[in-house]
Amino acid sequence: FNVPHGLTIDHKDNIWVTDVGRHQVLRIPKGATKPDLELGEKFVSGDDDKHFCKPTDVAVTSNGDFFVADGYCNNRVLKFSSTGKLLSQWGAKEGNNGMTPYTLNIPHSLTLIEELDLICVADRENSRLENSSNEALKIIETFLTFHKY
């Protein structure tokens, strides 16, 4: 590790680590000492499908698909298959200092509520929490906001 930031344990007891120094997301199987999945290019930041810029958190579904908050630079949430294939993404900082109902400004933490089909995002610099559909990845509710649009 370089600068480990986020830590998640999934349903299979895999350990997920976001490393903001390496710009990577790592999955370490239970009992292993090395990752079996590394996403992002080590020490190379970027905003394309193969790179992150200081990813902050991971949330994993029961089928192994997972979400990554690529928060500090890219202001997006990405959804991947269990094998690491990018399925979709949303969010970005744009206009109005990143403050619209559909943009993110440092999505910092994720929580998955599968029974409600929700991925919840702590949108740190917009001072709000957002609920998005797990499947459609579009914001369906903003709550606890402390700013006006």
Automatic annotation (TrEMBL):
Keyword Glycoprotein on entry: yes
NHL repeats: 1-31, 44-83
One GO CC term on file: extracellular region
Membrane-crossing segments per the record: none
Keywords attached to this entry: Glycoprotein, Repeat, Signal
Name under which the protein is recorded: Peptidylamidoglycolate lyase
Phylogenetic lineage: Eukaryota, Metazoa, Spiralia, Lophotrochozoa, Mollusca
Underlying gene: 106076171
